[in-house]
Amino acid sequence: MVELTLQQIVSACGGTFQGESDLLSHKVSHITIDSRQVQPGCLFVPIRGERFDGHQFIPSAYESGAVCALSERPLDTEHPYILVPSTLQAFQDIAAFYKSLFPISTIGITGSVGKTTTKEMISSVLSQQFDVLKSQGNLNNQTGVPLNIFRLERHHQAAVIEMGTNHFGEIRNLAKIVRPNYCFLTNIGEAHIEHLGSKDGILQAKSEMLEYMQEGGTVFINGDDPYLQKLQRSRQDVVAFGLTPSCQIYGTDLVSLGLEGTDFTLHLEGEQFSFHVPAPGKHMVYNALAAIGAGLALHMDMAAIQQGVASYAPLSGRMDIQKAQSITVLNDCYNANPGSMKASLDVLSYAAGRKVCILGDMFELGEKSQMYHQQIGAHAAQLGIDLILCVGSLAKEIAQGAQQEGSQQVHHFSTQQQLIDALPWLIQPGDTILVKASHGMAL
């Protein structure tokens, strides 16, 4: 992080400084919301959460060397602090000011499914030519995005920032910080439909990012998504990528290499180029096409873009293919919704030998949750998955959907421990096993 003075921080967040005025020239070299990460020269930002109020950790932050803290209430302390109405809002305002110090190409990514994978793919491409800051893991929420922004350094030439939401207004808050030059929308699915009401509501929430796109920017959309096509019809700054010729950037002739990935042909302005995606599934081709769009936007040559796509490596828990003695594990257990569940099952179907899926509950699906879970089970059965193992109260509907579709090898477990106890008798040498559920299942 580039150092900021306390005066800059006070001005950025509009707070009231409590302390000797000569301290305003002191510099902050690190900003954190976790008191365990406080170091000398740090600004501590206490956030009020569902389980903890960060204000209770302010004294320990000072003991660890924090030069200052934000607070929503007056403090009985000799240390300087900045009084603000909302520490979260102040945290975001400081991040927005910090981002303004870096006039670099910035890519914002949102969507229902595939945000993190698209972020990794775009970063893999841009890193062939630029020094890139990318969001860590899936730090894409109201505190995660500011934390990523504070990782910017003077040497960075581009930033790739993922933005997530499950309520209206959240993407707007994040986009105000990020101010992207290029906005990528991966798709509109059922994720978080419980809070956003409908796919039109999800489109509305995701589109909030466009309100803070920088002048002259470009919106990149999955042109095969019927909801995102609405943006293409209503705006002049949209570039579509997909698998149909109606998109400006499109792929054809997909050749599945099983779990080794997919080859395809890129079509661009009358020219054709060969690409290899080192990860299985048609959905990964969409991620590659998005990354190609990012590379073209930053004027990269095609050879570097091809190398960047071919160099993609998955994060742990994001369709990470792991060899474990005599079995192969498709570790895709970080999170799940109906769209990503179906895509992951499609990937499993490419495997040789016996195919096994371990599927857990999907959360935040609202009143249609039962239907969505049953559809997943039916999809697994239709793909011919050999053994379907379901765990969790909601996943009972997955089992039911698979059985109704005619699958004979279906087992449901109420708890993970029941599943774990049964696995030695269910798994066979040579199996390929997909593991997937919502993050809260901790599979």
Structure, described:
It is a single chain. It is built from 15 helices and 22 strands. The two termini are 35 Å apart. Strand 17 (320-324) and strand 18 form a beta hairpin. The mean pLDDT is 94. A nine-stranded mixed sheet has the order 9-10-8-11-12-13-14-15-16, with helices on both faces. The protein has a six-stranded mixed sheet with strand order 17-18-22-19-20-21. Helix content is 33%, strand content 23%. By secondary structure, it is of the alpha/beta class.
Could you list the spans in which at least 5 consecutive residues all have pLDDT below 50?
none
**Count of individual beta strands:** 22
**Structural class by helix and strand composition:** alpha/beta
Mean pLDDT, to the nearest integer, reads 94
The largest beta-sheet arranges its strands as 9-10-8-11-12-13-14-15-16
Characterize the main sheet. 9 strands, mixed
| Overall body shape | globular
Q: Specify the number of helices.
A: 15
Report the end-to-end length measured between terminal Cα atoms. Answer: 35 Å
Radius of gyration: 24 Å
Helix % is 25-40%
Q: Determine the strand fraction and express it as a percent band.
A: 15-25%
